[in-house]
Amino acid sequence: MTDLADSTASAATTTVPAREPLLKVEGLTKHFPVRSGGWGKASVVRAVENVSFEVRPGETLGLVGESGCGKTTTGRMLVRLLEPTSGKITFEGEDITRTKGAKLRKLRQDIQIIFQDPYASLNPRHTVGRIVAMPLQVNGIEPPGGVKKRVQELLETVGLNPEHYNRYPHEFSGGQRQRIGIARALALKPKLIVADEPVSALDVSIQAQVVNLLRQLQRDLGLSFVFIAHDLAVVRHFCERIAVMYLGRMVEIGTREQIYEKPAHPYTRALLSAVPDVTRLGSASRIKLEGDVPSPIDPPSGCVFHTRCWKAQEKCSAEAPKLLPNPNGSTSACHFPETGKLF
Amino acid sequence: MSNTPAAADSRSPGTEDTAVAVLQPDTTAAKAFVGRSPGQLAWLRLKRDRTAFGSAITVAVFILVALLAPVISRLYGMTPTAGFSDKLNFEGLPVGYLGGISGEHWLGLEAGSGRDLFMQLIFGLRTSLIIAFAAAIISIALGVVVGIVSGYFGGWVDQALTWLTDFMLAFPFLVFALAIIPIINTALYDVGEEVPGSFRITVIIAVFALFGWMTTARLVRGQVLSLREREYVEAARAAGAGSAHILFKQLLPNIWAPILVAFSLALPGFIAAEAALSFLNIGVVEPTPDLGRLVYYGRQWLGTPDWAYFMIPATAVFVVVLAFNLLGDSLRDALDPKAGK
Ligand SMILES: Nc1ncnc2c1ncn2[C@@H]1O[C@H](COP(=O)(O)OP(=O)(O)OP(=O)(O)O)[C@@H](O)[C@H]1O
Ligand code: SF4
Ligand SMILES: [Mg+2]
């Protein structure tokens, strides 16, 4: 095996501009109406606000942000488990925002999801074989050679013993369960997989293996990924492009080099300083963000990050910054973006 | 480069994980060679439970006796309705001790009518169990449907069904039964006309079912509400599964355990309620044999030296209800080991 980090890096620079987007998201917004208490006043959780990005065929996009910033909500809208409040999702040039019925079923075969919790994502009453075969079954697909053969192939693909198809989920470890979830997502031969923090619930020693498996699948099967993570460490060697979210908004998006070497947004920089192996960083330059993430029910005015930003000035609370290209090449939403080399 | 994926680059993906997979059978091989479903595990727990064993045997004997009542009657050589007034004294009490227990009449005779008590008892048990099983099956089925619809579809459907459930729960069952059962019976049959026993039984089953589904509905609704957000349900939805698949293939297998427990606990409830109705004389009437009515008749002879005639049917009702309750409890413990005892 060659150095994977290098090979994917060169792939990113050579092929990115040529590809047409597989998935295009424009102004995606999700508001959850909520009520505080039985008779409390109705309010709105602004879980995702005006998010736009693209994923090209075979590309891996990282979606990164702290807990509660709307990553899962975004991912669920992409796989159509949640209806967007507004915005547009285009897949292979077709508007799929409100697709319904038979067309939606067809579409679901192309976009699959891997979940965060390896325990809640497998039905405890079903055997592994049934779990992995479920997508085939509900779509009435009879693979050549039979369902069992296909299931065993899939189990082998994800590095599990194909003879274990009649075992139950509780007999597997967390990492193995996550592999079962991956096999299920692969059953319909999707083009895009939304992986919602697929390794966050796993032991650190197992995380690398599962990420490696995903990377291998991505190359072997030409899959595109939207890879959700809550820190920049995990996506580092997996994603060609990275989008950083804060409080439902996209604050910066750029290639891996742009994000890791010259982050423009203060929030990206703060996230990056938490990555243990950003080598040029001494421990002194670790940026500790003060305070908690504000409530998405009542987000701060202007730049939503201003309550925690060490560079905040008057303009920041008055005026929301627009997503604009930076000198470093990435696109970020900040009135006073970082310039030049980092650290 | 400690916590990063690149650290594992030199290894092929999954080596350690598959190593675990290979190792795992070693630790479990002693106990199991193939996958054990949660149901099989529950069965193992149930087999180790002595109360469950005892009550299961008792319940099985009662059910068997009730099912085989006609066969037993033939072997025993008596029908439940045949009277032996020649074996009663001038007061109408059976001759002999303990209600006239003898080799011929194992549990003695019924005071007054002189019918064989053993026959009355097993045919009465048959009536009680038929009513209880039918009522339990219908009411649990109703409860499951209402609970699933209300939990899964939510919105105004849920609100309406929840309101209906609360409304029905607030209804005083016994008062309603006292009022409605005679009305139904007289409304459909003219005065003086004989109301057939089967019709009376049907009415009782219907009334039980009507008042028995609410707790199940609540239980199932709660279960569905918590399960429908599970990621495996989302995975099925994301794969294109329809509501039928999600309800019957994904959700139902996970709620059959509480449903089974609800069913096994509903049975003794209905047996007791049926006995109570008969005791109040609005249940099954002559000539259909019935446990509750046996107790009711026996009560009149409590003051006499011969209390056996009251004690025997009362004990039978008590033992049946207790055995079913204990079995239901054991079942719950086996199916949900985490639930408090
Ligand atoms: N169904 C819902 N109703 C109301 N609010 C919701 C709902 N789902 C999510 N939210 C809120 O939306 C916000 C974004 O949630 P989301 O789960 O997308 O965050 P996340 O980035 O995935 O976080 P995590 O890292 O914890 O998974 C949170 O504040 C959450 O409380
Ligand atoms: S706009 Fe202001 S508050 Fe927001 S990130 Fe930039 S500097 Fe910080
Ligand atoms: Mg999440």
UniProtKB/TrEMBL annotation, chain A:
Recorded coiled-coil stretches: none
Domain ABC transporter: 23-272
GO molecular function: ATP binding
Entry keyword Transferase: no
Signal peptide: none
Top-level taxon of the source organism: Bacteria
Keyword line: ATP-binding, Nucleotide-binding, Transport
Pfam families xref list: ABC_tran, oligo_HPY
SUPFAM superfamilies noted in UniProt: P-loop containing nucleoside triphosphate hydrolases (SSF52540)
Record-linked NCBIfam families: oligo_HPY (TIGR01727), PRK11308.1 (NF008453)
Family to which this protein belongs: Belongs to the ABC transporter superfamily.
Protein name in UniProt: Dipeptide ABC transporter ATP-binding protein
Organism taxonomic ancestry: Bacteria, Bacillati, Actinomycetota, Actinomycetes, Micromonosporales
Automatic annotation (TrEMBL), chain B:
Membrane topology designation: Multi-pass membrane protein
Record's subcellular location: Cell membrane
PROSITE patterns: ABC_TM1
Protein keywords: Cell membrane, Membrane, Transmembrane, Transmembrane helix, Transport
InterPro entries xrefs: BP-dependent_transpt_permease (IPR050366), MetI-like (IPR000515), MetI-like_sf (IPR035906), OppC_N (IPR025966)
Name used for this protein in its record: ABC transporter permease
Native source species: Actinoplanes sandaracinus
Similarity comment: family membership: Belongs to the binding-protein-dependent transport system permease family.
Keyword Calcium: no
Cell membrane in keyword set: yes
Lineage: Bacteria, Bacillati, Actinomycetota, Actinomycetes, Micromonosporales
Chief localization: membrane
Transmembrane segments: 52-72, 129-155, 167-189, 201-220, 255-280, 307-328
SUPFAM superfamilies documented for this protein: MetI-like (SSF161098)
Location of the ABC transmembrane type-1 domain: 125-328
Pfam families per record: BPD_transp_1 (PF00528), OppC_N (PF12911)
